[in-house]
Each structure stands twice: as structure tokens, then as C-alpha cells.
């Protein structure tokens, strides 16, 4: 009979969002995007997961790394931001949200393995993108993360221009995601894109067959 | 560790008790490599699936529980009651899924009584996610939760590390790849009840056929606004065996040779009466 366990290895492996996430600032807002693949080893556990989590009305975060850790961090910060915004009596700043994420990331550095990119719009600073990798807090004009980001560093460095319009930023995000999903085995599915500005957050889902194609597709 | 006297109640110490792990390690050392293997926990190497249809949710599961390569239970119930409108399929370590769903059910009942509200599926999911995340994957419970509440029909999966997925159709367990193939092919939004039941049954059947850890019969559970239809079994295994012999023995099979009755003298040493406060 069988010597090894009846359970395949991926059943006992932690579920990771091997991912591509990206966020870009533009004049008056931000565009944040992600793929939708969640893997456990070689198996895809969820092919349509929305990795763009709401932190507040006009602040979103993109999840990457361990699915459980990232989801729990986002929920914890969502709660803390709600309390904070009630205490100060106004909408929270993007920097506040990012600081809360950073605090958890830094304090539980050894225990958690998740990276969240925080992006949103507030009255004081306009559109902002913050990186919170490993517990640092850094504002950047654009940020990429997840396993698929390695494949698009060249693309984003070459193609990013300052002062892109809302539409150009959305195209930039969708192109970057499509390229990464095409090369990274752990990224795929559909692309979720959220555009946040003064009026609110607009969510869009770009299906697999609607994604831009490149020379070999 | 002292041997407990049989007539003295030994209250369990608080916190986690890993004495058996220490005992197992010692046994493995003493008896040499390969001679003793610690007994593997009973896992429900399983196929479980769920589908959201027009009027509610259909959950399905096989009924085989394995302990390594032996079938420990041929008619194991993997669809657990959580609330009148919420049921949960469990894969992974049998004891973990059983206890986790029991705890969840108790918590939700207390909540219902406290607030006079029917529990929502999202509440069950949040409690589960919180608990499993706290235990960092040590609780091997892979759960599919389905239910109908005021906000509609919902189907969630919760992993042992605390990750949650909400999707219209799901399969989990060692037979999930086989079942997922059937679901991906046959699912469409707003299925009719019969279509949904057939689809889930085919999905579980595919798991039973293609996975060694799944087998026996198919259980189904249909949850709608009106109520729950727990069909156990929905489809019986085609490979049932006929018992070749009888295992019952008639009274008198073993002859009694001699009978000896000795009365035992019992003296009352001490009698205490404690009044119950019934005020």
C-alpha cells in the first residue's frame, strides 16, 4: 500500500497570495491594482480573489504574501481606522492608515509574512501611495509588490512618467499587471483596479480575455 | 507523570498539555527507528463541495474517514450543524473540524439568545477566521461554510491559517481537484434546485472515484430561507459489500458450568448531608 500520506503536500502548505500588486499616484488621486490568484503550493485555491481591501472610504490596501496574515492585518487596520476617524471627527489621512499598517508589520515582523501597499486620497495630501514592506514607511510616486513584481521592474521604471492623467495611470496599472501575470506562475486570473479620488472609489474588474496582449500572445 | 487513581477525579491542568508528544518521542527513541511510528491522527481525507443556487446553498460531502491507509469510519458525517440556517463541511483532522464547529455552534447559540437575532453567515466566518488565525495553523481544519440569512445566500471557505474566500462554488479536501473540475464545467449562476443537487453530487462522486482518501456515500445538505433538507445519504456507494456470516451469538452458546454467589458485607462508614440552596 502507499507509504506516504494520502494528503498531498499542498494541503498542509500555507495559503499564499503569490501576487502582483501595484499602486500609482496621479494628479488628484491614486490607481491601485492587483491580480486575483491565490495559491497553496502548486494548487490554485481561489482564482478570483479581490486583493484590494478597503481600509476606509477613500483608502485601500493591496494584499500580498500569506493570505491569512494579509487579510487579518487589513481587517485589524480597518477597525483601528474606524475608531480613529470617529475620535478625530473627520476622514483619516492616508498616512495614518499607512502608519497603522506599518506598526503591525514592524511589531510582528518575525511572525507575519505579508506586505501591504496602502494607497488613497485625503484632503491634505491628495493622492498618496505608501510602501510598508518589513515595517518601513515610505511614500513613493508608484509602488509594486508581490512575487510578480520582479518581472516588471524594468517596465515600470521605463514607462512611468510624472504627471500622468487618470486614464493614463489606469492603463499603466493594467499593462503592468498583464505583463506580470503573463510571466509569473503565481499571478493570474483577472485584474482588479480601483481608482480613488475626491469623489470616491471606483472599482473595476478587467477579465482575463480583456487584458492587453503583447507580442507573444 | 503519576498514574491516576481510578477513584480520584483528576482535573485537567489549564493551558496546553503536550505530555503525549513527550511520551511519543520517548517511545520512538527507546524502541528504535522504524519499529514504532506514532499513530497518525484520524484525518477525513475528503471531498467536500458547495454551490450557491437560485434559492440558497447546497453543501455536499463524502463519508469516508481514514487513519493512514485504513478506513476508520465508512459513514462519517462531515456536514456539521452550526445554526438553523448555517451548516459547515469539514476536511482535515477529524477531531479539529468536529470541535471547532461545535465551539462555533455554541458561541452562535449564545449570541442568538443574548440578542434575539438569527446569526449571520459572515459572523460565523469572522469567529472561525479569528480563532484559526490565533492558533497559527495548529488546528488542521479546512472548512466550507454555507448558509442563508437576511442578506442572502453565502458560501465561504476558511483555511487552517485563517484565510477566507467567498465564491459561488467551492471544493476542498484531498479530492478537491477532481470535484473542482466538475464544478468549473457545470456551474452557472442561478441554478435550479435539481441541477444544483446533481452538480454537487457529481462533484463529490468525482472525488470519491479519483481520490483514495474519499469514498463511500454522498451526503447533501440543502439550505434555503424556508429551512434545511439534510439528506444522508443522498447517493449510496455502488460498492457495498454483503456480510458473508453472522456475528451474533444466541444466548446459551457459552454453557455455564458452575455458579457461585457470595454476598459482600458493606458497612456505612460516614454519611454527610449537604443542603441544596433552593431559595
From TrEMBL, chain A:
GO terms for molecular function: threonine-type endopeptidase activity. Coiled coil: none annotated. Keywords: Cytoplasm, Hydrolase, Immunity, Nucleus, Protease, Proteasome, Threonine protease, Zymogen. CDD domains: proteasome_beta_type_6. The keyword Magnesium does not apply. Gene3D superfamilies: Glutamine Phosphoribosylpyrophosphate, subunit 1, domain 1. It is found in: Cytoplasm; Nucleus. One of its GO terms (biological process) is immune system process. It catalyses: Cleavage of peptide bonds with very broad specificity. It holds the Pfam family Proteasome. Component of the proteasome, a multicatalytic proteinase complex which is characterized by its ability to cleave peptides with Arg, Phe, Tyr, Leu, and Glu adjacent to the leaving group at neutral or slightly basic pH. The proteasome has an ATP-dependent proteolytic activity. Belongs to the peptidase T1B family. This is Proteasome subunit beta.
From TrEMBL, chain B:
It catalyses: Cleavage of peptide bonds with very broad specificity. InterPro entries: Ntn_hydrolases_N, Pept_T1A_subB, Proteasome_bsu_C, Proteasome_bsu_CS, Proteasome_sua/b, Proteasome_suB-type. Pfam families: Pr_beta_C, Proteasome. The active site is at 46 (nucleophile). Keywords: Cytoplasm, Hydrolase, Nucleus, Protease, Proteasome, Threonine protease. The keyword Hydrolase applies. GO terms for molecular function: threonine-type endopeptidase activity. It is found in: Cytoplasm; Nucleus. Residues 241-273 form the Proteasome beta subunit C-terminal domain. GO terms for biological process: proteolysis involved in protein catabolic process. GO terms for cellular component: cytoplasm; nucleus; proteasome core complex. The keyword Hydrolase applies. The proteasome is a multicatalytic proteinase complex which is characterized by its ability to cleave peptides with Arg, Phe, Tyr, Leu, and Glu adjacent to the leaving group at neutral or slightly basic pH. The proteasome has an ATP-dependent proteolytic activity. This subunit is involved in antigen processing to generate class I binding peptides. Component of the proteasome, a multicatalytic proteinase complex which is characterized by its ability to cleave peptides with Arg, Phe, Tyr, Leu, and Glu adjacent to the leaving group at neutral or slightly basic pH. The proteasome has an ATP-dependent proteolytic activity. Component of the proteasome complex. Belongs to the peptidase T1B family. This is Proteasome subunit beta. It comes from Denticeps clupeoides. The gene is LOC114774168.
Amino acid at each position: 500500500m502507499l507509504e506516504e500520506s494520502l494528503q498531498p503536500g499542498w494541503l498542509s502548505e500555507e495559503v499564499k497570495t503569490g501576487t502582483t500588486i501595484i499602486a500609482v499616484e496621479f494628479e488628484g488621486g491614486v490607481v491601485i491594482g492587483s491580480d486575483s490568484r491565490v495559491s497553496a503550493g502548486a494548487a490554485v485555491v481561489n482564482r478570483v480573489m479581490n486583493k484590494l481591501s478597503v481600509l476606509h472610504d477613500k483608502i485601500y490596501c493591496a494584499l500580498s504574501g500569506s493570505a491569512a496574515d494579509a487579510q487579518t492585518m487589513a481587517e485589524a487596520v480597518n477597525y483601528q481606522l474606524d475608531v480613529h476617524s470617529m475620535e478625530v471627527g473627520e476622514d483619516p489621512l492616508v498616512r495614518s492608515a499607512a502608519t497603522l499598517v506599518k506598526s503591525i508589520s514592524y511589531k510582528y515582523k518575525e511572525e507575519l509574512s505579508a506586505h501591504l501597499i496602502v494607497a488613497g486620497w485625503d484632503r491634505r495630501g491628495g493622492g498618496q501611495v505608501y510602501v510598508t514592506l518589513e515595517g518601513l514607511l515610505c511614500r513613493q510616486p508608484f509602488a509594486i509588490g508581490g512575487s510578480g513584481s520582479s518581472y516588471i521592474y524594468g517596465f515600470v521604471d521605463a514607462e512611468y512618467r510624472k504627471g500622468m492623467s487618470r486614464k493614463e495611470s489606469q492603463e499603466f496599472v493594467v499593462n503592468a499587471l498583464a505583463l506580470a501575470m503573463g510571466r509569473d506562475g503565481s499571478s493570474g486570473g483577472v485584474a482588479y483596479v480601483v481608482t480613488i479620488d475626491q469623489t470616491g472609489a471606483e472599482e473595476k474588474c478587467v477579465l482575463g480575455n480583456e487584458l492587453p496582449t503583447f507580442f507573444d500572445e | 507523570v503519576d498514574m491516576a487513581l481510578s477513584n480520584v477525579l483528576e482535573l485537567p491542568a489549564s493551558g496546553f498539555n503536550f505530555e503525549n508528544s513527550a511520551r511519543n518521542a520517548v517511545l520512538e527513541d527507546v524502541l528504535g527507528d522504524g519499529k514504532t511510528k506514532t499513530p497518525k491522527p484520524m484525518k477525513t481525507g475528503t471531498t467536500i463541495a458547495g454551490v450557491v443556487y437560485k434559492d440558497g446553498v447546497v453543501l455536499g460531502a463524502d463519508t469516508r474517514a481514514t487513519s493512514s491507509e485504513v478506513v476508520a469510519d465508512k459513514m462519517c458525517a462531515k456536514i456539521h450543524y452550526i445554526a438553523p440556517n448555517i451548516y459547515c463541511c469539514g476536511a482535515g483532522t477529524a477531531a479539529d473540524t468536529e470541535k471547532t464547529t461545535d465551539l462555533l455552534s455554541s458561541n452562535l447559540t449564545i449570541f442568538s439568545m443574548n440578542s434575539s437575532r438569527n446569526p449571520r453567515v459572515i459572523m460565523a466566518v469572522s469567529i472561525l477566521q479569528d480563532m484559526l488565525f490565533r492558533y497559527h495553523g495548529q488546528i488542521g481544519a479546512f472548512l466550507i461554510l454555507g448558509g442563508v440569512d437576511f442578506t442572502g445566500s453565502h458560501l465561504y471557505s476558511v483555511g487552517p491559517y485563517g484565510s477566507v474566500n467567498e465564491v459561488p462554488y467551492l471544493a476542498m479536501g484531498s479530492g478537491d481537484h477532481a470535484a473542482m473540475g466538475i464544478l468549473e464545467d457545470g456551474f452557472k449562476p442561478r441554478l435550479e434546485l435539481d441541477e444544483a443537487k446533481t452538480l454537487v453530487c457529481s462533484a463529490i462522486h468525482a472525488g470519491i472515484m479519483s481520490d483514495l482518501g474519499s469514498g463511500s456515500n454522498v451526503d447533501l445538505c440543502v439550505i434555503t430561507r424556508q429551512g434545511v433538507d439534510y439528506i444522508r445519504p443522498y447517493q449510496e456507494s455502488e460498492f457495498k459489500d454483503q456480510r458473508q456470516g453472522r456475528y451474533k451469538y444466541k444466548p446459551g452458546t457459552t454453557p455455564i458450568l458452575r455458579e457461585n454467589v457470595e454476598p459482600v458485607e458493606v458497612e456505612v462508614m460516614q454519611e454527610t448531608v449537604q443542603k441544596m440552596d433552593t431559595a
